[in-house]
């Protein structure tokens, strides 16, 4: 069995992947606490001159300690890697919640907005301006509380700097003065983004949404948007005052807190200011060292597939009901599927590669992970999935398949999955007849679900 441990953290499976980092599920072996471990390759961030930006991001996250902000626990480093240990949030992005429900209720929207304003105001008192507030960067924990994440574009200018000048953020959520290239107040610009988020929560769509950027910027500059007829009147008044294109007259946070719509059922959250915050681990992680700071027991490329530990199985199984590893509930997101095999890992990998290529897709393999990409089944959009092989028992492998890119939706993905599985009959394990759980049933029934 491959040991996967960094310092006191036992590492599980990959739960996210970006341009410069992977995010792993991990558990603190001393406390039993689940965490998210962001793993960065030191040479990659040096090559792309990202050291200062990443160091600033994690410094900011160490400084802002608030119940509605994703917490950074500590930073570790080896000679080749930097490990950022973060609070593990189980509820996913607020964006996904909006998409799933179309729009949120007035009460739920208000509660999230109240928590957002509390957290943003706290950041501003610390001299931090997020600059990329949007539902994709707002997570929801297991108790339904909002957590701000991703401070990659944040500014921490320090005393004496009154205006920011970098144009950044996601266009649909960016304040008009940010787009003017004349300098802007970071706090006031963040408030605009909060107003856009509140509109999206209640309406289920963006107030400013144009394919052509020139038209989009023009509408943002004039605050040219309209409310649906059923929009709550009090919330409409609040949003109109927040989405004021003039930053001088735009509503401030203290005014938002005094608004009658905002104040309903409002209980301010107390910041975590009693803790001593040290930046020693951040500074140490980015210093050059001859030796390694931590014990790093990660795998070599020539070893077999990763062995799923107990923590991984819990993450994969939606709680402790292991049957969902093989056939998820109808209401779950259907861009993530898996099957089991009893064949050797290299046989499974090579078979999947041949099948994917025979279907007209390109394949890229590294260790026991394969990316499949090309045109979708209907030949109208680019399509990409990630397949990873895990060892779950001495004679059992689990193949995890997840859509990673593409313009199409659930039906397109399930069509790929059905066709792919139909060509893998020789390697997919089928339980004895009469058993509750059947991977073949997964392949045959998923395509019928919308």
Describe this structure in words.
The chain has 450 residues and is of the alpha+beta class. The protein folds into three domains: 5-88 and 275-286, Phosphorylase Kinase, domain 1 (2-Layer Sandwich); 94-263, Orthogonal Bundle (Transferase(Phosphotransferase), domain 1), CATH 1.10.510.10; 320-448, Kinase associated domain 1, KA1 (TATA-Binding Protein). The chain has helices at residues 42-47, 51-63, 94-101, 106-125, 186-203, 213-222, 233-242, 253-257, 260-263, 280-286, 310-316, 345-358, 410-422, 439-445, and strands at 5-6, 9-17, 21-28, 34-41, 72-77, 81-87, 138-140, 146-148, 306-307, 336-341, 362-366, 369-375, 382-393, 396-406. It is globular and about 65 Å long.
Domains, number? 3
Query: In one word, what is the shape?
Result: globular
Please state the average pLDDT score.
Answer: 81
In the CATH classification, which architecture of the largest domain applies? Orthogonal Bundle
CATH level 4 superfamily of the largest domain? Transferase(Phosphotransferase) domain 1
Please write the string of helix (H) and strand (E) elements.
EEEEHHEEHHEEHHHHHHEHEHEEEEHH
Strand order of the largest sheet: 1-2-3-4-6-5
What is the name of the CATH class of the largest domain?
Mainly Alpha
Relative helix content: 25-40%
Number of helices: 14
Strand percent estimate? 15-25%
In the CATH hierarchy, the third-tier topology of the largest domain is known as Transferase(Phosphotransferase), domain 1
Q: Return the structural class.
A: alpha+beta
Distance from N terminus to C terminus (CA atoms, Å) equals 39 Å
């Amino acid at each position: 069995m491959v040991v996967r441990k960094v310092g006191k953290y036992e590492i599980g499976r990959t739960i996210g992947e970006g341009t410069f980092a992977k995010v792993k599920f991990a558990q603190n072996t001393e406390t039993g606490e689940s965490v998210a471990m962001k793993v960065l390759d030191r040479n990659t961030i040096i090559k792309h001159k990202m050291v200062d930006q990443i160091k600033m991001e994690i410094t900011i996250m160490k400084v802002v300690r608030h119940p509605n902000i994703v917490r950074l626990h500590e930073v570790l480093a080896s000679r080749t890697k930097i490990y950022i240990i973060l609070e593990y949030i189980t509820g996913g992005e607020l964006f996904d919640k909006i998409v799933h429900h179309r729009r949120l209720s007035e009460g739920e929207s208000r509660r999230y907005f109240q928590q957002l304003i509390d957290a943003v105001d706290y950041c501003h008192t610390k001299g931090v301006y997020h600059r990329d507030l949007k539902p994709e960067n707002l997570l929801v924990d297991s108790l339904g509380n909002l957590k701000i994440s991703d401070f990659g574009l944040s500014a921490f200018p320090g005393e004496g700097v009154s205006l920011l000048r970098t144009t950044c953020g996601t266009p649909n959520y960016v304040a008009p003065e940010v787009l003017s290239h004349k300098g802007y107040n970071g706090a006031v610009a963040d408030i605009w983004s909060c107003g856009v988020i509140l509109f999206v929560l209640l309406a289920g769509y963006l107030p400013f949404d144009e394919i052509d950027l020139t038209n989009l910027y023009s509408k943002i500059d004039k605050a040219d948007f309209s409310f649906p007829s059923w929009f709550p009147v009090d919330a409409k008044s609040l949003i109109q005052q927040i989405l004021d294109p003039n930053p001088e007259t735009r509503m401030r946070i203290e005014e938002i807190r005094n608004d009658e719509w905002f104040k309903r059922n409002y209980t301010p959250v107390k910041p975590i200011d009693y803790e001593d915050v040290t930046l020693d681990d951040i500074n140490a992680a980015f210093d050059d060292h001859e030796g390694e700071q931590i014990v790093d027991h990660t795998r070599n490329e020539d070893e077999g597939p990763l062995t799923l530990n107990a923590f991984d199985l819990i993450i994969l199984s939606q709680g402790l009901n292991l049957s969902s590893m093989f056939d998820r509930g109808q209401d779950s997101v259907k861009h993530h599927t898996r099957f089991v095999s009893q064949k050797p890992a290299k046989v499974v990998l090579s078979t999947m590669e041949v099948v994917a290529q025979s279907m007209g897709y390109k394949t890229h393999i590294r260790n026991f992970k394969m990316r499949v990409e090309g045109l979708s089944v209907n030949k109208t959009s680019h399509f990409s999935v990630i397949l990873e092989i895990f060892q779950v028992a001495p004679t059992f492998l689990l193949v995890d398949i997840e859509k990673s890119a593409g313009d199409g939706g659930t039906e397109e993905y399930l069509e790929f999955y059905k066709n792919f599985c139909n060509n893998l009959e020789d390697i997919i394990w089928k339980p004895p007849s009469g058993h509750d759980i059947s991977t073949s049933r997964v392949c045959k029934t998923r395509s019928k679900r919308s």
